[in-house]
Amino acid sequence: MATRKISPHKVLYDQLQARGRTTILSAITFAALLIVVYTNSLLYNVPLQSPSAVITKEVPEVLRVHSTERIVMSAIKDVQLTSSKRREEEEVSHEVFHKETQISLIPPYNVAEQERIKWFRRLLPEFKILESDKLTKEFHSRVLEFFNKECEVRFFMTWISPAESFGSREFLALDSLFKVHPRGCLTILSRTMDSAKGYRILKPLLDRNFKVSAVTPDLSFLLKNTPAESWFEELKGGKKDPGEIPLPQNLSNLIRLAVLHKYGGVYLDTDFIVLKSFAGLRNSIGAQSTDTVSKKWSRLNNAVLVFDMNHPLLWKFMEEFASTFNGSKWGHNGPYLVSRVAEKLEGRPGYNFTVLPPMAFYPVNWNRIGGFFKRPEDQEGSRWVRAKLLQLSGETYGVHLWNKQSSRFSIEEGSVMSRLIASHCVICEYKYNS
């Protein structure tokens, strides 16, 4: 009979739980012993001249035992409640710490470059994503162990925010991914999700035997011997201007390129709902928009990337990132970067890649995504919803939800989004507004 591999996250979670149980059990046992000793002392060591001594001697043995048991069980309950309360307080404290840290890591706005570099150097220890430690050293071996021949498609996501921020919208991306790819494998590159908290978030999927794992990335390893290696080493040394845009956002743009170059597969942002299998895609990138006259793509986006290991276009992307990095201009190191490079190299020998039309990944633009969340108000609205769903069932692999724009919208019953979720979920616990 085949031996089932245990997820590294499961091992980590079990170890943390075991330590917690051992600590609580030791405290309970110690408290119980003290109470037994103290109770016996009260029962048997009261001075003989005390009136209570006569009463104690006349209490039947069974009542003394039951009395002691009640005291011990009461103490155990108190210890358990105190421990549970302490765990809750620690988790709240942990969340507050992460939120405060996130706020403190927002770059100062409208200051000179040298002043921002000084700020960055001072706070370098707080940028945990740049750290090298025991977890990062295990990164490569954990990834290789996780992926196997049974993986239909290799997926990657990044999550650099606190685990507490990984909410129902993000979980929806995972839910829809495994609905369409039950034999797919997903690695989430994240230090914060590589934790007991992260394990609890992923547990509903793990309980259904889906292959999902959060792994702390080793950026030095991923970028070694790539065009971005020296750029990263200078950044770690506090010699680079991180820019006004939060650094994790720009690092995510680089990490997705490096991990695909190293292992190959599919990169997905966490604000996607997957509709169709990616198994037939290779070396593809999606257009966000096209020219109305020429019908040629006018802008690409890096929210979805599908590439073989060591693909030369990924190398060129990293080269462009390192040589033209601008941390203060939104999109410069992401969507605009892949657009710049692809425009230069499209059709050139050795750079074989396909640009898919907007309907593949970006069937609705960011400024119109709100319409997907609204319920139809009349028959005309209902017809539009049905027509849109029919259109998406064709050549659309997934819908980018543009979370920065759509997070303010609730998913209303009967909307395009509610209908998509209903037919593309496994856990299916998303709540709608009627």
TrEMBL record:
InterPro entries: A1-4-GlycosylTfrase_dom (IPR007652), GlycoTrfase_DXD_sugar-bd_CS (IPR007577), Nucleotide-diphossugar_trans (IPR029044), Put_A1-4-GlycosylTfrase_plant (IPR044789). Gene3D superfamilies: 3.90.550.20. Keywords: Membrane, Transmembrane, Transmembrane helix. The chain crosses the membrane at residues 24-44. Pfam families: Gb3_synth, Gly_transf_sug. Residues 307-428 form the Alpha 1,4-glycosyltransferase domain. The keyword Transmembrane applies. PANTHER family: ALPHA 1,4-GLYCOSYLTRANSFERASE FAMILY PROTEIN (PTHR46781:SF2). This is Alpha 1,4-glycosyltransferase domain-containing protein. The lineage of its organism: Eukaryota, Viridiplantae, Streptophyta, Embryophyta, Tracheophyta.
